[in-house]
Design brief:
alpha+beta; Thiol Ester Dehydrase, Chain A; 2 domains; 12-stranded antiparallel sheet; 7 helices; 12 strands; about 20% helix
Length: about 290
């Protein structure tokens, strides 16, 4: 197991403090803020700890209210909203320095058979035909800004293989869509709640990038202020992050210094695993430098 995956599993193993109260920590990455996917994953774990094992998460809806401080623990308080005959509802609030920094509502359901349909997976190159992260770094990172290099040089629990790197190396205005293959960089236990939490963690990666494509901008541009504002996710079918998953994304709108991005996550065999929607802040710090799409 890689150190990055081991650390991810460790930070998702929350410490129980009291009935409905849990504590999580952040890895020492040098970031000024806690990665949003970490808070989503930890909040989902906190909710799962209060739900019968036979009920699996089918949806979550969350809001980011304050940037998390990676130097101090995060307290997760779970409110047991409802335990129904088929569905269970939980609300989770993440707290730091006495203030709520994040909130989530999550719904869980026991397995039921029923009508079954899904959209087709987009026709994209397979991950084995694409540059792995090591080769991508060798080919592109020498021309990247220093802060971008630092971001990519860290060991990562999730490997990403994009079908295109054009947005990293040019200011060209591109179509508002992106396709990225993702999987864990080491074996993850075959545990449905844990797999769902890690997929929630990974689902916050690259989404906001897509909303910047039509503007020829990058999340690393120094005049950009970029942050997740909300995040919703629907779990359709079982997750296995030990195998490649295609993260297909598109951004239907940017306005009001916000970008909306949608994502569909497909297993290698074309099975639609989950869907995601996120709106994020994409503010140009100096409006005079904004480039209209």
């Amino acid at each position: 197991m890689t150190s990055a995956v081991r650390e991810l599993l460790d930070i998702l193993d929350l410490e129980p403090l009291e009935h409905n109260l849990f504590r999580g920590r952040s890895p020492k990455t040098g970031w000024q803020r806690v990665f949003g996917g970490q808070v989503i994953g930890q909040a989902l774990v906190a909710a799962q700890r209060t739900v019968d094992a036979e009920r699996k998460v089918h949806s979550l809806h969350s809001y980011f209210m304050l940037g998390g401080d990676p130097k101090v623990p995060i307290i997760y308080e779970v409110d047991r909203i409802r335990d129904g005959g088929s569905f269970t509802t939980r609300r989770v609030v993440a707290i730091q320095h006495g203030h709520a920094i994040f909130s989530m509502s999550a719904s869980f359901q026991r397995h039921e058979n029923g009508l079954d349909f899904q959209i087709d997976m987009p026709d994209q190159p397979g991950p084995e035909t694409l540059l792995n992260e090591k080769k991508m770094k060798e080919q592109f990172m020498h021309q990247a800004p220093e802060h971008v290099k630092k971001y990519w040089q860290r060991d990562r629990p999730i490997e990403m293989r994009a079908t295109s790197f054009e947005h990293y190396i040019s200011d060209k205005k591109l179509a508002a869509e992106q396709y990225v293959w993702i999987r864990a960089t080491a074996e993850i236990p075959d545990d449905a709640p844990l797999q769902a939490a890690i997929l929630a963690y990974a689902s916050d990666m690259t989404l906001l990038d897509t909303s910047l494509f039509p503007h020829g901008r990058k999340v690393f541009d120094k005049d950009m202020q970029v942050a997740s504002l909300d995040h919703s996710m629907w779990f359709h079918r079982p997750v296995n992050l030990n195998e490649w998953i295609l993260f297909a994304q598109d951004s239907p709108s940017t306005s009001g210094a916000r970008g909306l991005t949608r994502g569909s996550l497909f297993a290698r065999d074309g099975t639609l695993i989950a869907s995601v929607a996120q709106e994020g802040l994409i503010r140009v710090r100096d409006p005079g430098r904004a480039r209209n799409a």
